[in-house]
Amino acid sequence: MDLDGFSLDRPAIAEHFVFEFRGFDREKVALRIEQNDLAVTTGDKFVAAALNPEEWH
Prior knowledge:
Elements: H1 26-33, E1 38-42, E2 47-51
Antiparallel strand pairs: 1-2
């Protein structure tokens, strides 16, 4: 069982979250969410975070 009480042999559940802001400092946001297990990317109008494949294999 996993922490949610589901069997470990079930397929993984993908989760996606989108947060929209009118204005923000993307560098500050990137620094706040940066972790070893996340790959953080910034662009002109976005900050994206995904599971780091080197940590989640």
